[in-house]
Amino acid sequence: MAKNDSETEDKSSGKSGKKFLRRVKDIVRSVVDFLYDERTHKVFGLFLLLFSIYLFVAFTSYFLSYGS
User: Of 26, 29, 25, 48, nearest to 37 (Cα)?
Assistant: First the structure.
């Protein structure tokens, strides 16, 4: 009897393990799709552009105010 109980536990845990792996694969696939999306590239590029403009203004302001 104990042998049958362990076999059913293995089968049930195997199914949940497959579901877990399928869920992980779906999550990884959605993250990869997000990273390869053209809109993500454009938004990230826009962020970098705005951040570089901000840094340019900040450094220019600093050098002009303390340079004289």
Answer: 29
- Contact in structure between 64 and 57 (CB atoms under 8 Å): no
pLDDT tens sequence across 2-57: 555 555 555 556 788 899 999 999 999 999 999 999 999 999 999 999 999 999 99
Number of H helices, E strands in the chain: 2, 0
- pTM for this prediction: 0.60
Amino acid symbol at 66: Y
Alpha carbon distance 39, 20 (integer Å): 30
Maximal CA-CA distance, the chain: 90
Distance between CA 17 and CA 25 in Å, rounded?
12
